[in-house]
Amino acid sequence: MKVYSSAECDINLLVKTLRTREGTARPDVAGTVADIINTVREKGDKALFEFTERFDGVSVKSLEVGREQIKKAFESLEPELAAAIEKACENITAFHQKQRENSWFESFDNGIFVGQKITPLERVGVYVPGGTAPLPSSVLMNVIPAKVAGVSEVIMCTPPGRNGMPSPVILACAYLTGVDRVFSVGGAQAVAAMAYGTETIPRVDKITGPGNIYVATAKKMVYGVCDIDMIAGPSEILVIADEYANPAYVAADLLSQAEHDVLASAIFITNSENLIRNVMTEMDRQLRKLSRKEIITKSTENYGAAVLVESIEEAVKLSNLIAPEHLELMVKDPFSLLGSIKNAGAIFLGEYAPEPLGDYMAGPNHILPTNGTARFSSPLSVNDFVKKSSVISYSEKALKSIYKDIIRFAETEGLDAHANSVRIRFEGENK
User: Fold this and answer.
1) Sign of dihedral through CA atoms 307, 20, 317, 328?
2) Residues of the chain with pLDDT > 90: what percent?
3) Are 344 and 263 members of one domain?
4) Is 42 marked active-site?
5) Which residues are annotated as a binding site for NAD(+)?
């Protein structure tokens, strides 16, 4: 992990380096994904069977996983794991229920009626990665807010394992969260199938969920055909710590994100030079015991940083510039800094709120903006699964009171038909 001093180097160079992690701009990947999408559009299910055999190395008899198989996967869970998942479901559901909005309408004595109608999406597709590191928590974080929002149908695509079936724990989570249909399809071809529909997989209104560079590129390409949640980049964590912070905790939390990917970013900002030394020592000690040490080493060497600043206030300013996905405030009084944080996907306050708490159990969504997009975007929420329609009704009297103003606007913009649409209703008034 590189060590920087804000007094001796241009911190903007660090921010620029982090922005180079964007993973969906490779021409070779874009070309491959475009071909996959076009093939799925043309050949439908046949293309999905062929791609599954080519990319996943298995031949599946059916694209859809039966309801009985999904139920059996849940029933086969170890009781302790099932209890932990159920507890997480409860917390995530409770949090997202507070995000629900209601339609609203307002009427006035002069005959004006306006409002906003909120309608859940009809059908949503959730992509859940499988492979060597299945992510059951992704099922919870995508499906639960959709269900809370009132989405009529939630389908899920997830790649098959060597036995031709998706991960049992992913299927178990699908059962718990009420996924309506599950398909054993992965990669860019799954995204294409959900966006355009095939003989078996229905077309959806929106696709959510994480994936590798091929999945992310496919989501980018089908946006407009359907909606997507976001283009999530490699994971990142930023820890602001003062001299009161426990170096072992800081080190552990940095390592927890660095293990995701060689492109993951772990940054530590402090006003204590002594803490930097102690955290570095702890990272070396803890790393030796971790199974993904090779990934962590590459991640921290290329995108890790310890930054020494003159004050915690300066640390906050730098954090707002980086706009991290996960921000931990490991300082003596973390709540005193909360008002100063402008850009962050999720904010963790205090030494007993480690980032994995948010990944699995606390309740807030762990699908967060990355690569600096926390400057303008938000975590996945119930609002991502509804659409809003404006409602307008005017009486003749109400329109008459402002129709000349509307005509002036329309004529100023050179839109005669717009003006005529209003004028024709009051032609008799001008005779």
Assistant:
1) negative
2) 87
3) yes
4) no
5) 127, 189, 212
**Helix (H/G/I), strand (E/B), else coil: 394:** strand
What pLDDT, in 10s, does the model give residues 196-213? Answer: 999 999 999 999 999 988
Cα separation, 180 vs 196, whole angstroms: 19
- Statement: residue 37 has pLDDT above 70: yes
Tell me, what CATH number does 212's domain have? 3.40.50.1980
Q: Do 209 and 347 fall into the same domain? A: no
Does 326 score more than 60 pLDDT? yes
CA angle 25-30-34, nearest 5°?
150
Instruction: Output the pLDDT for position 375.
Output: 95
Set 236, 259, 282, 325: catalytic member:
325
Q: Read out DSSP for 261-328?
A: -TT-EEEEEES-HHHHHHHHHHHHHHHTT-TTHHHHHHHHHHH-EEEE-S-HHHHHHHHHHH--SEEE
Q: Indicate the pLDDT class of residue 26, thresholds 50, 70 and 90.
A: confident
- Position 27 confidence tier, pLDDT thresholds 50, 70, 90: confident
- Tokens 């701009």, residue located: 25
14: in domain? yes
Is 325 in the active site? Answer: yes
249 and 207 co-located in one domain: no
Instruction: Read off the pLDDT of residues 75-108 as tens digits, 9 standing for 90 and up.
Output: 999 999 999 999 999 999 999 999 999 999 999 9
Residue 184's domain spans which residues?
27-228
**Binding site feature residues:** 127, 189, 212, 235, 257, 260, 326, 359, 413, 418
Whether residue 146 is found in the same domain as residue 204: yes
User: Is the pTM above the cut of 0.90?
Assistant: yes
Instruction: Record the tokens describing residue 57, joined without a space.
Output: 């190395």
Among the listed residues 236, 282, 326, 351, the single catalytic one is 326
Tokens coding 105: 């309408």
Starting at the edge strand found earlier in the chain, the sheet holding 181-183 runs 64-65, 181-183, 153-157, 123-127, 206-208, 227-228
Could you tell me which residues are annotated as the binding site for Zn(2+)?
A: 257, 260, 359, 418
Pair (179, 212) in one structural domain: yes
- Of 363, 386, 412, the residue at which a domain comes to its end is 363
